[in-house]
Specification:
Blueprint: H1 3-13, H2 21-34, E1 38-41, E2 47-51, E3 56-63, E4 74-75, E5 78-79, E6 82-84, E7 87-89, H3 93-109, E8 116-123, H4 131-138, E9 145-148, E10 155-157, E11 160-161, E12 164-168, H5 169-180, H6 187-198, E13 202-206, E14 210-215, E15 218-223, H7 236-250, H8 254-271, H9 277-285
Parallel strand pairs: 3-8, 3-9, 12-13
Antiparallel strand pairs: 1-2, 2-8, 4-5, 6-7, 10-11, 13-14, 14-15
Length: about 290
């Protein structure tokens, strides 16, 4: 394996679904060894590194916590990691230690232009509401530009990337306050504010009671069927995004795409299991009856 794959495999092998400290230690240690940057660990456990100086800043952003692994993904000394057909497999390989490893290497190898500060940031608590990122923002983390390793969906055509930004209700509020100023706004107004600031293809906010999608076609708010006794809520947002991505691939319009996202997440929180296409179809067919 090459250096990047080796680094990603090392990070993936470190458990971080309950306690991110060991994964953060590995990232911090590598950065201190491989770079001359100013590397710091904040009170939340986030790892931040900076090099270069200037009036503008560019941040390479990721997170090193993961959702709980399946039994088959765990061994006595950490997570199971394997390669197959040139691909790396293990809990967190895609979400998102592989991208964190790439950002670490890019940060080390980059020579910031004059007038630019380059920042590396790997946050804790992304899977539980973005607690690490929120801590950093409250402490003044506000780069002018950011590259996030998990942020785009399918390609709609040659040289064209459809970018869909998706966040939960709390994260949507934080983004709206950051881009439009702190104010009392509805969920829909927050989504509209973030869409206007970022200009993605779609901005989607998903919540417990409703999900909102803003696009050039307007803004749609779709109610979420309530569940009084969920089996599992951790990673429900990931399942919503899986349904949303499927809808994008299928070419569904914004409101229908959100319904599909709600359906995949809704099935998951009720069963703690991943739905088949038949399960999703049945959930959508009975969507209105669930209210």
């Amino acid at each position: 394996m090459d250096e990047l794959t080796d680094l990603a495999a090392d990070l993936v092998s470190v458990p971080s679904h309950e306690d991110e400290a060991a994964a953060g230690d590995a990232i911090e240690s590598w950065l201190r060894k491989e770079t001359d940057a100013d590397v710091r660990r904040d009170d939340a456990g986030n790892v931040l590194a900076r090099k270069g100086t200037g009036e503008e800043s560019l941040a390479l952003v990721g997170h090193h916590d993961v959702v709980p692994p399946d039994e088959g993904q765990v061994r006595e000394d950490g997570y199971v990691v394997r390669t197959e057909d040139g691909r790396l497999y293990g809990r967190g390989a895609a979400d998102m230690k592989g991208a964190v490893a790439a950002a670490m290497c890019a940060f080390r190898d980059a020579d910031p232009a004059e007038g630019l500060e380059l920042v590396f940031a790997s946050f804790v608590g992304e899977e539980v509401g973005g607690t690490g990122a929120r801590h950093a923002i409250e402490a003044g983390f506000a780069p002018d530009y950011a590259v996030v390793g998990e942020g785009s969906t399918n390609y709609s055509g040659p040289d064209v990337t459809d970018v869909v930004v998706s966040s939960n209700r709390a994260e949507t509020g934080v983004l709206a306050d950051a881009y439009a100023g702190e104010a009392e706004r509805s969920f829909t107004e927050d989504a509209q504010a973030v869409f206007e600031a970022l200009s993605p293809t779609w901005f989607v906010g998903h919540g417990v009671e409703r999900s909102v999608v803003a696009s050039e076609e307007g803004t749609d708010s779709v109610a979420v069927p309530a569940v009084s006794d969920p089996e599992l809520t951790t990673s429900s947002g990931d399942h919503f995004n899986a349904g949303l991505g499927l809808a994008r691939i299928a070419g569904l319009p914004p409101a229908a795409a959100v319904v599909l996202g709600n359906a995949v997440a809704g099935y998951f929180v009720r069963t703690a299991d991943q739905p088949s296409l038949a399960d999703v179809r049945a959930f959508v067919d009975d969507y209105l009856e669930k209210f």
